[in-house]
Amino acid sequence: MTEQPGRRERKKAATRQKIADTALRLFAEHGYDAVGIREVAAEADVAVTTLFSHFSSKEALVFEQDEDFEQRLVRAVTDRRPDEALIPALRREIHAMVRHCTADGAAPLWRMIEESPALRQYEEAMRQRHARSLATAIAADLGLPQITPTCGAVARFVVDAFSVARETDDPQAAVDEVFRMIEAAWAVAGATPPPRESVAV
C-alpha cells in the first residue's frame, strides 16, 4: 500500500528530530568538537547520507530550528492581521522566539555555541540570511520592487534583537527596549505600508 504524503512527512520530521536530539545529547555529553558526523548517525541509527539529507553540516545540527525561525519571521510580516502594524507583529514574534530559546535547560547549548568559533560563524551567517529574508518580506509588504536601506537595516535590527535579548538577565525587557528604538527609526523613516485588504471569510 502506498504511503500517504502526510504520513511520509511525519516520518521525515520524526527522523530529523531524532537526529537533532541525538546530536545535541552527544555534544552535551562529550563536547561539540569531540563528536563526529558518523558517531551521530550511528547513535541515531541512520545512514550518514540520511543525516545529510536533513542537515547540510555538523553545525546545522545545533541550529536545527534555523529554517523554522526564518519562516516565522517572514510569516510575522505576511500573515499578520490586516489591522496589525508591522513592527508590533515582529516584536510579538521575537518575544515568542526568545521565550523558546531562553527556556530552562537552554543555557548549556548557548555556552557551547559561544565556545566554538565554527558555531559562532555559522550563527552569524544564519542571522544574515534571516535578515535578508525578512528585509525581502518587508519590502514586498511596502509594495517596493527591491530591498531599500531602511528595510535592510530594520530587518537586521529585528534579528539582532533576538541575540541581544538572550544574553541579558531579562530577555523580554531587552526585546521591548530594542523594539522601542526600532519603532522610533521606523517612524522617522516614514516607512508606512499601503492599507492591507482583509480576506473575506
From TrEMBL:
<dbReference type="InterPro" id="IPR050109">
    <property type="entry name" value="HTH-type_TetR-like_transc_reg"/>
</dbReference>
<dbReference type="Pfam" id="PF00440">
    <property type="entry name" value="TetR_N"/>
</dbReference>
<feature type="domain" description="HTH tetR-type">
    <location>
        <begin position="13"/>
        <end position="73"/>
    </location>
</feature>
<keyword id="KW-0804">Transcription</keyword>
<protein>
    <submittedName>
        <fullName>TetR/AcrR family transcriptional regulator</fullName>
    </submittedName>
</protein>
<dbReference type="GO" id="GO:0000976">
    <property type="term" value="F:transcription cis-regulatory region binding"/>
</dbReference>
<keyword id="KW-0238">DNA-binding</keyword>
<dbReference type="InterPro" id="IPR009057">
    <property type="entry name" value="Homeodomain-like_sf"/>
</dbReference>
<keyword id="KW-0805">Transcription regulation</keyword>
<dbReference type="GO" id="GO:0003700">
    <property type="term" value="F:DNA-binding transcription factor activity"/>
</dbReference>
<dbReference type="InterPro" id="IPR001647">
    <property type="entry name" value="HTH_TetR"/>
</dbReference>
<feature type="DNA-binding region" description="H-T-H motif">
    <location>
        <begin position="36"/>
        <end position="55"/>
    </location>
</feature>
